[in-house]
Amino acid sequence: MSIESARRVRRSPEAARENILQSAERLLLERGPQGLKLVEVAQGAGVSHATVLHHFGSIDGVQTALAEAMIRQLVARVLEAERPDDPEAQLEGVGQVLFDAFESAGGARLAAWLELTGETRRLTLVREAVAEVISGPMAQKGVDPERATNLILVAVSLAMGVGLIGRSLAELVGRPPETTREAALAFLKTGLAAAIKT
Amino acid sequence: MSIESARRVRRSPEAARENILQSAERLLLERGPQGLKLVEVAQGAGVSHATVLHHFGSIDGVQTALAEAMIRQLVARVLEAERPDDPEAQLEGVGQVLFDAFESAGGARLAAWLELTGETRRLTLVREAVAEVISGPMAQKGVDPERATNLILVAVSLAMGVGLIGRSLAELVGRPPETTREAALAFLKTGLAAAIKT
DNA sequence: AGAGTTACCTACAAAAATGTCAATAGAGTC
DNA sequence: GACTCTATTGACATTTTTGTAGGTAACTCT
Question: What is the pTM of this model?
Answer without folding.
Answer: 0.86
